[in-house]
Amino acid sequence: MIIADASWIIALRDGRDVHHERAVAIHESVGTERVLLPSLTFAECLVGPAKFGALDVAAHGLRAAFEIVEADVEAPLRWASLRADTGLRLPDVVVLDAAVRHGARAIATFDDRLTASATDRTVVALK
Predict the structure, then answer these.
(1) In the beta sheet, which residues pair with residue 3?
(2) What is the CATH number of the domain that holds 20?
């Protein structure tokens, strides 16, 4: 199982993104493996499309491509602890927490700080 970070999803969907080719290669390497998209990350990925009036189309596409996972009632406590421990921004903490909570083998991201924190917790980062 893979947890998707917004940096990977955005690069995957934007051919002009500097990481686009690598994002596509990661997507192809994942194959049919289950990819989870935390709901906060889902929202992050929809900001750009919302600015351009394409919110519904983008949301439909993401829902079709990835499994959206909701936070549980204890998530804010874990997030606060992880944020205090790592110094990561909250959206990155949510991705890291999802990886740990769901026992993911990897996080798909281009964020170096998230990669380092994931590696510290024995979660591989696909970059």
Answers:
(1) 36, 107
(2) 3.40.50.1010
Q: Which of 63, 124, 117 is nearest to 93 (CA)?
A: 117
Token duo for residue 98: 């999802």
- Are 101 and 116 in contact by the 8 Å Cβ rule? The answer is no
pLDDT at 87 over 90: yes
* Domains identified in the chain, total number: 1
Q: d(Cα 107, Cα 118) in Å, to the nearest integer?
A: 8
Tens-digit pLDDT profile for residues 96-108: 999 999 999 999 9
Average pLDDT for residues 31-44, to the nearest whole number? Answer: 96
For the full predicted model, state whether its pTM sits above 0.90.
yes
Q: CB burial class (10 A; 0-12, 13-18, 19+) of residue 118?
A: buried
Tell me the residue range of the domain where 55 lies. 2-126
